[in-house]
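#struct-pred
JK: can someone run the complex with adenosine-5'-triphosphate? inputs below
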Amino acid sequence: MNTHPIIETKQLTKTYGGTSRVDHVNLKVQKGEIFGFLGPNGAGKTTTLKMLLGLVQPTKGTVKLFGQELRNHRLEILNRTGSLIESPSYYGHLTGLENLRVMQRLRSLPAKNIDKVLQIVRLENHRHKPAGQYSLGMKQRLGLAMALLAFPSLLILDEPTNGLDPAGIGEIRELIKSLPAQYDMTIVVSSHLLSEIEQTATSVGIISEGQLLFQGTMAALQTQNQAKIHFQINDPSAAVKVLAAQGYRPIMQERRLVFGPMQDSEVSRINEILVSGQIEVSRIVESRKSLEDIFLGLTGKERSL
Ligand code: ATP
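RT: done, structure tokens with the ligand placed:
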């Protein structure tokens, strides 16, 4: 069985005016994944996605899609790939249906695909309306219909919910989630919103200032938020001494001793050591960082998302 990743970049770099906007990025996306590409505005998401599609020439590094080098197999690869990057392009004076027909003929695709994609993106009832008169959400759905028209193996969507209202966001999210199983697709979806990615993606890449800071499953990202146990006590320096004698080296934060994750039995044991050392324990608390905290911690708290 062929198990090469659907996307594999090696040291992918794009430099503008001497600054690396995408900096030695090694991405790996496996078949059937919904890969959430997450990062603040200006992090380098769009530039990376454009390099995956051959729309921007890398300064350095390689892109392989479906196990083949993009630069040597461009047409073949792009025939299996659908994308929606930045705002959808369409003819405003043509209806949604006519826009799809233009593309279907241009790419010699089966005519029946048009009805299918109109149904998938729920534009059947608006097919005869000029696309220029569509609402923002409808335009976005038309863009998605165009990206889906060839039923590609790989779908690349750059911030597909940008500018949509909550109902529209929910619809697109559900649609994205349904595609891999229904149509055997692999999806890359970028966003600057953790909540977006958290609800749709099976794996995630976090990029900031052109650097890939994390890549892995959602579950692996979650493990970065291991629980901490806090003991609130009356005499921190005495407590540290008592604990040090038993081999414990907690972090001291004001009147709290902070430990890493531990079993209940160990919590009891530490409590016992403290109490028998005449230390008053007034509270034992478990804390866990939210995914948002992890994301902010990785990308830098000072920047707004
Ligand atoms: P956003 O969500 O705001 O679109 P992004 O993560 O997609 O952000 P990019 O659009 O990839 O970020 O931009 C990354 C950086 O590269 C930005 O600082 C941007 O100004 C710069 N950049 C992008 N394209 C060009 C270009 N053609 N010439 C010069 N600089 C560019």
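RT: quick notes.
The chain is about 35% helix and 25% strand.
Residues 16, 21, 39, 41-47, 192 surround adenosine-5'-triphosphate (CB under 6 Å).
JK: thanks, will look after standup
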